[in-house]
Write a structure and sequence with these properties.
Elements (H helix, E strand, L loop, with lengths): L2 H30 L2 E11 L11 E2 L4 E8 L5 E4 L3 E2 L5 E7 L5 E9 L5 E4 L5 E4 L11 E3 L3 E5 L6 H8 L2 E3 L6 E3 L18 E5 L6 E6 L1
Parallel strand pairs: 1-10, 1-11
Antiparallel strand pairs: 1-2, 1-6, 3-4, 3-5, 3-7, 7-9, 8-11, 12-13, 14-15
InterPro entries: Pollen_Ole_e1_allergen
Keywords: Disulfide bond, Signal
Organism: Gossypium stocksii
């Protein structure tokens, strides 16, 4: 390698570093100027089972809010206005900026329906990622559906939950709550047995025993 070629090496290295550094700064600057649209849906859990069924209904006029908080000191880094869902229970929230260092959640605020206004324990809020610096691209960000629970479960829920086979009637709470194995499969009939009623877990015996019929 000639002396002239060796002398050019630092210049080439400096040029490459300048290009790389400029690209990185532009990428970060672009992320900071990103505009996101968070979309989601609010429904009425008419069976009080903490998830959507075919009897669930959209809630128009429900209010949600998006907040972002720094992971280190929990200070508020973004807060949207209160957003109202449309007739289909859908909402859109526009967010400007990058929130790589924050946890962002869409949360229920209130329901317009007094008969369906109990926030779901599992789906009262939903985490959304508002940064492109972690590999997630695109401006659209989708939140999980959020739900309010009806004061009293619909009568039709009994049949729906029998069809699903996962839930039992809570005698204490008077609503429908998730089962963790309170049903057994009839090996002979190939369905939930007995068909006349649900099964509940016997706390004393530690096995499956029939509950009172519905």
């Amino acid at each position: 390698m000639s002396t002239r070629e060796m002398a050019n090496i630092p210049i080439i290295a400096l040029f490459c570093f300048t290009i790389f550094g400029s690209s990185s700064l532009n990428f970060v600057h672009g992320a900071e100027n990103m505009t996101y649209v968070v979309v989601g849906h609010v429904y009425c859990d008419t069976c009080r089972v903490e998830f959507e069924t075919k009897l669930s209904e959209p809630i128009g006029g429900a209010v949600v809010k998006l907040e972002c908080r720094n992971r280190t000191d929990n200070h508020l880094t973004f807060q949207s206005q209160e957003i109202v869902t449309d007739d289909r229970g859908d909402y859109h929230i526009a967010v400007e900026g990058d929130y790589e260092e924050s946890d962002c959640d869409v949360a229920l605020v209130r329901s317009p329906n007094p008969d369906c206004s109990d926030p779901s324990e599992l789906w009262r809020k939903s985490r959304v990622v508002l940064t492109t610096l972690d590999g997630v691209s695109g401006e659209l960000r989708f939140a999980n559906n959020l739900g309010f629970k009806k004061k009293v479960a619909l009568p039709q829920c009994t049949q729906v939950l029998q069809e699903i086979g996962y839930y039992e009637l809570s005698q204490e709470a008077g609503d429908l709550s998730p089962s963790l194995g309170y049903y057994e499969l009839s090996q002979e009939a190939g369905d939930i047995s007995p068909s006349s009623g649900y099964y509940e877990l016997s706390q004393e015996a530690g096995d499956i025993s029939p509950s009172s019929e519905l």
